[in-house]
Amino acid sequence: MRSLVRGLIALAALSAAVFFGLPSSPASAHGTLAMSTPVNGATVDAPVASVELYFTEKVQDSATFSITAPGGGRVDNGWEHASPRPLDKPVTEYFMENGKFEPRQYRTGFPARVRVAYLPGPGEYKVDYQSTASDGDPVHGTVTFKYTGPATQAPAGWAPPGEQPSAAPVPAGDGGGSTWLAWVGWGVGGAALVGGFLIWRRRGFRRPSFGRVPVVPIAVGGVVVALIGGYALGRATVADAPPSTTPAAPAAYSGAGGHQHGGNGGTASVDALGTSVSDQGWTLQPEHRSQARGSTIDYTFRIVGTDGQPATRYAVVHEKPLHLVVAGRGLDGFQHLHPTMAPDGLWSVPLKLPQPGAYRVFADFSLSTADGATTPLVLGADHLVPGDAKLAELPAPQTIAQAGDFLVSVEGAPKPGSTVPMLFRVARSQGPVTLERYLGAYGHLVVLREGDLGYVHVHPDAELVDGAIRFNVSIPAAARYRAFLEFQVDGRVQRAEFTLDLS
Predict the structure, then answer these.
(1) Using one digit for the tens of pLDDT, what is the confidence trace for 161-195?
(2) Which helix (H) or strand (E) holds 218?
(3) Does residue 245 belong to any structural domain of this protein?
(4) Which pTM was predicted?
(5) How far apart, in Å, are the Cα atoms of 239 and each of 27, 162, 179?
(6) How far is it, in rounded angstroms, from Cα 278 to Cα 286?
(7) Whether residue 95 sits in one domain with residue 46
(8) 3-state SS string over 154-187?
(9) Which CATH number do you get for residue 59?
């Protein structure tokens, strides 16, 4: 009797292992929406020419997008792929590996730029998207923004698109990781187990025996076989079913809201970068920490991994594999340089600093792997020019700045913790200005925060907006900032500087 009880206990343990211990197929989650410009739920007070949706992988060419105005009509005018850029904050997705969920971070956003034909009036605009991820799962959702600016006119000859993209169908077999056949298998096995146990418990039950064949152990073994067989049948059916759109993971942590398939784009983080010399296992290692006032040195450095080996594989972003930005602690002395790299990973660039003081050197780059994945990073290191530094107050905020022979005006008021479009218009008294592309864009804007020199590198629209350079600027928090705009006219790069007082 005791041996039988021990056998039943072992059977119960085996059943629990069968029910709960068998690992499922690795879960897949790719291509989710990481952030958007404008930010989901943001209020925009100036006309926008496009909406950019940043996914954790490049969306397929067959993806569909629509923008619906408050009155219900569509105002989108097609879409296009745009250049990848670092996400404001990494997005974490979860994958089932070896029986447990493992996090995987994505730090690069692959934008789909949806063009806005016109804005018929104030109100809430909806941006619907639908695509298919590389793992076969549907990716769909909605981003909204509230527009409070003036109405704009539709382009001549423009006609609204057809029907909106329909919601992605939910694949069959989605039932929290099991199909009805799995439950049938569990039910048959469980019924056999319970029935056998109740029969054994009946008073007066006499164990049958055919010769010396032990019937009870055979019956117990049969229950186990039925149980495992039924469960395996259900599991096989699940494996053959189309992938589920229901996330089979705990609440995913991510600075951008824990996005999963089918979810809406969350509020994008607007953290500043470059306040650390190391990030994600990579360190900026300068060979020079100081230089004499007015001297020119070859500023050399490496990007070194945790194994002590320098990185040598970089992705080209804005026509360069690495951008080096230098600025004084007083937010003056700005320089935007482009070093060259030797085969051993040593970068070098001539650097001249005419004024004494403390400087910050930012390396803005994206590392590339053999499979094409990229890791965008901004690392910062201090640099010193000995001498008596003159401390000066930041210039007062103004909407017009001088840049050589040009006057640059800015439109749009940035807001802490949100993304706001800012337009820069370039003019001169001698006649019209023809802006030229510089490093693949009509303008480049770097925004630095007073105090810790937090680095906010924003990207412009691909095309001019009514003759102006438009950026979507994400300000991290209430503070004072200095914005450095670079643009090119007649083959020469000019720079305009603005103070943003958001304290």
Answers:
(1) 875 554 444 443 443 333 344 444 445 445 544 45
(2) helix 215-240
(3) no
(4) 0.52
(5) 11, 38, 10
(6) 12
(7) yes
(8) CCCCCCCCCCCCCCCCCCCCCCCCCCHHHHHHHH
(9) 2.60.40.1220
Q: Pairing mode, if any, of strands 138-147 and 42-44? A: parallel
329: DSSP letter: T
From 322, 280, 327, 318, select the one nearest 449 (Cα to Cα): 327
More confident residue, 259 or 329: 329
Least confident interval from 42-56, 170-184, 356-370: 170-184
Q: Residue 463 maps to which CATH number?
A: 2.60.40.1930
**Same domain, yes or no: 409 and 362:** no
Q: Give domain status of residue 163, yes or no.
A: no
Tens-place pLDDT, residues 194-233: 455 454 455 444 444 444 445 445 444 554 444 444 444 4
Please report the beta strands in 29-122, taking only residues with DSSP state E, as ranges in sequence order.
33-37, 42-44, 50-55, 64-68, 76-81, 85-97, 100-116
CA 87 to chain centroid, in Å, comes to: 4
Tell whether 20 and 37 lie within a shared domain: no
Could you tell me which of 377, 497, 373 has the C-alpha nearest to residue 446? 497
Q: Which helix (H) or strand (E) holds 10?
A: helix 2-21
Question: Looking at the structure, do residues 375 and 436 belong to the same domain, yes or no?
Answer: no
Q: Taking Cα atoms as reference points, which of 357, 365, 228, 360 lies closest to residue 299?
A: 360
In this structure, the answer to whether residues 205 and 285 fall within a common structural domain is: no
Cis preceding-peptide flag for 217 (omega within 30 of 0): no
pLDDT (tens digit per residue) in 112-151: 999 999 999 999 999 999 998 877 788 889 999 999 999 9
Amino acid sitting at position 355:
Q
**Which range of residues forms the domain containing residue 322?**
278-385
126 Cα distance to chain centroid: 21
Domain count, the chain: 4
The strand pair at 400-403 and 340-341 is best described as unpaired
Question: What is the 3-state secondary structure of 441-495?
Answer: ECCEEEEEECCCCCEEEECECCCCECCEEEEEEECCCCCEEEEEEEEEECCEEEE
Strand partners, 328: 359
Report DSSP state, residue 67.
E
Structural domain contains residue 167: no
